[in-house]
Design goal:
With 258 residues, the protein is mostly beta strands. Among the domains are: 71 residues, Beta Barrel (Thrombin, subunit H); 109 residues, Beta Barrel (Thrombin, subunit H). The protein is 14% helix and 35% strand. The protein is built from two helices and 16 strands. The strands form four sheets. A four-stranded antiparallel beta sheet has the order 1-2-3-4, with no helix packed on it. Strands 5-6-7-8 form a four-stranded antiparallel beta sheet, with no helix packed on it. A hairpin with a 5-residue loop joins strand 5 and strand 6.
């Protein structure tokens, strides 16, 4: 059967695309040095994990052409804040947006960088992770102040991730890597290698000191302090697990996998 010119062109195009894809995968794999890892058994989707339709009623908020909110924070007036970057793949410029209670979107602070996790402290300063500065504080006028750019051992916060604050004002945050700057290529490398890098940290605004709580996390991600400040939870994204670090009681400074 004789193929038409259009079909031949389509076959050649698919072949070229597939060849480029394989070449790209092989090229990038040369720089990978992964650890062996067996994923855990998938939990049954019942009880608290049961599938639901809770997200079906959500409403999309347009962000005036900006992309990529990693987290949101709400001030004491009910206004919503998020960090954004310039395009789907370009993280070289960013802003922190404010969405007021009427839905109006404005620029709250010109960070010139993608800002990830964020949380308001008791003085309504926005505490956040900044890919260029590290752990930062932003006042109500949008002025940015760097709180910490490295840990007590000199390891840089190159990919600060999420933030939460305890009732005593101590800030808990994750840093995904102290070896690689943020980029799409580096993110895939961190996820595929599954090597311990970065960690979980605390920052005390009174002493201005950083303390390493977990040295070496597997793509340290989300952070949440319990309501009674007994422990802090942290997501080890590359290992599909949540780690609990105890802050009080007999289990203080004990690390448990959930």
């Amino acid at each position: 059967m004789k193929l038409s010119k259009k079909v031949k062109i389509s076959i050649i195009t698919i072949f070229i695309f597939f060849s480029i894809f394989i070449t790209n995968v092989l090229y990038n794999s040369w720089s990978l040095n992964p650890l062996a890892w067996s994923p855990p058994t998938i939990s049954k989707l019942d009880g608290l994990l049961a599938e639901n339709e809770l997200l079906s009623t959500t409403k999309r908020i347009e962000l005036n052409g900006w992309f990529g909110p990693e987290d949101i924070a709400i001030d004491n007036q009910g206004n919503l804040y998020c960090g954004v970057h310039i395009s789907k793949t370009d993280f070289t410029d960013g802003r922190i947006l404010k969405i007021d209670t009427s839905g109006k979107v404005t620029v709250f602070a010109n960070s010139e960088s993608w800002v990830t996790g964020m949380h308001f402290d008791s003085n309504q300063n926005l505490i956040a992770g900044d890919l260029e500065r590290g752990l930062i504080s932003i006042d109500q006028n949008g002025n940015i102040k760097t709180l910490a750019s490295e840990d007590e051992n000199g390891n840089k916060f190159l990919i600060p991730n999420d933030v939460d604050i305890a009732s005593d004002g101590v800030i808990y945050f994750t840093n995904t890597s102290s070896k690689l700057n943020f980029s799409n290529k580096h993110i895939w490398k961190l996820l595929m290698e599954v090597r311990p890098d970065g960690g979980l940290y605390s920052y005390d605004p009174k002493t201005k000191r950083v303390k390493t709580l977990i040295d070496g996390t597997y793509f340290g991600n989300g952070v949440a302090v319990s309501q009674n400040d007994e422990f802090v939870l942290m997501v080890d994204l590359a290992k599909y697990r949540v780690r609990r670090y105890w802050l009080k009681g007999e289990k203080k400074e004990l690390l448990i996998y959930l």
